[in-house]
Amino acid sequence: MAVPEAVTTALRLVDEDGLDSLTMRRLAAALDVQAGTLYRHFATKQTLLAAMAEEMLAGCAGPLPDGLTWREQITELAGRLRMALLRHRDGARVHAGTHSVGPNTLSYTDTLVGVLRETGLSPEAATRTALTIVHFIVGHTLEEQAAQALAESTELPATLTLLHAALDPGTYPNLAAAEATLTSTDFVGHFAHGLNLIIKGLAGE
Amino acid sequence: MAVPEAVTTALRLVDEDGLDSLTMRRLAAALDVQAGTLYRHFATKQTLLAAMAEEMLAGCAGPLPDGLTWREQITELAGRLRMALLRHRDGARVHAGTHSVGPNTLSYTDTLVGVLRETGLSPEAATRTALTIVHFIVGHTLEEQAAQALAESTELPATLTLLHAALDPGTYPNLAAAEATLTSTDFVGHFAHGLNLIIKGLAGE
DNA sequence: ACCTGAACACCGTTCAAGT
DNA sequence: ACCTGAACACCGTTCAAGT
Which residue of A has its CA nearest to B130? Predict the structure, then answer.
């Protein structure tokens, strides 16, 4: 049993059945090994999840095309992280639930901080801004994948009805006006809006 | 057994031992009841968690003091949500893992969208901006509480050493410059920086 | 109407013993 | 050195039967 295969197999299992169905026993079975054997390679399930989170970020810090403005560089890097999380079912949850210090994760942050420093920000401001961007991406993608999961579940009609019923204009006047946007599935648009807000804030400094 | 007591007891158990230790059986024992009894009041554990998330937001949408600028109103509302999540151990994880459509959650979003509309934003722009702010808060607080948990765990020295060792200026030049900020515990400062970036972006529209 | 007792089908993790 | 087999101490959820 090799560690890299175990990690990619674990990601495949998550893609097939969701994070809640990933168990050490199921992974062991998929690798044709006893459950206990996994603990020779991963100290705990958390360690396995961190390795999965790290693997998901492969390529995210790759070289940026030449000739991009700093705005485009930030947009490109942010888009890559979002896509990396979206590529696997429950990817944002896997990422948010762990704290990887592997090379993919580290070089992604390094690259993002670098782009921000080139705009003239101090190391501290660049780091805080990078954190802001990453936190927004993770929060956004968590929500995006939760919406995806809900859309595929049987609870969708019930939730939508409940939401719609709650949207009494007398009680929640702004929510009534927001309903179309809240129930829209234009996550690309939502993501771009949020990221542009942050980028615009940056330009104002 | 009453539902409100069950929810507050569940939150107390989370505060004492963390979210991973909250089980239906432990909660049942704390309520002096059999585990099966809980399923008469909550269809699944997810339902219980959603009720806990909803309870955490009590008061968050309360009236804003008079005379605040819109910037101050946004800052006040954002700070309330962050504080509500911080008030309970693993609060951000509880919130992020559920999708409440209860009155506390709905009226919080309603209030935030309302403040943003008053700045002149369209319903769509106001809604998207509210989502951006909430996603940032959730992403930030998830990280903040993960750092808290790490700080209280025995893995802290190992992680810090690993991180420091990885910070070779030749490999990660920007991370080396970012280390002080990345390892700082000034989460109030980080939060203010991110939120101000978004608010500044808003002012530019 | 509400709760108990007991079961079903699982978990993560550990560790002696085998090869 | 690496894996198996088996166990330990749990899980979420269901449901007949009691009161």
Answer: A194
8 Å CB contact between B195 and A139: no
User: Angle, nearest 10°, between helix axes A103-118 and A123-152?
Assistant: 120
Which amino acid residue lies closest to nucleotide C1, measuring CA to C1'?
Answer: B40
Closest residue by C-alpha to C1' distance, nucleotide D5: A34
- The whole-angstrom separation of Cα B28 and Cα B44 is 13
Round to whole Å and give the CA distance between B170 and A79: 26
How many C-beta neighbours within 10 Å does residue B21 have?
A: 11
Residues from chain B that touch A110, judged by Cβ atoms under 8 A, are: 172-175, 178
Query: Residue B42: what residue type?
Result: F
Distance CA B178, CA B76 (A): 29
pTM above 0.90, yes or no: yes
Identify whether the C-beta of residue A53 lies closer than 8 Å to the C-beta of residue A127: no
- Contact between A190 and A178 under an 8 Å Cβ cutoff? The reply is no
For strand C, give the nucleotides within 7 A of a protein CB: 2-7, 10-16
Cβ-Cβ contacts under 8 Å for A75 (sequence gap 6 or more): A195, A199
Query: Mean pLDDT, consecutive 10-residue segments, chain A of 205 residues?
Result: 95 97 97 96 97 98 96 98 98 96 96 98 98 98 96 86 84 93 96 98 79
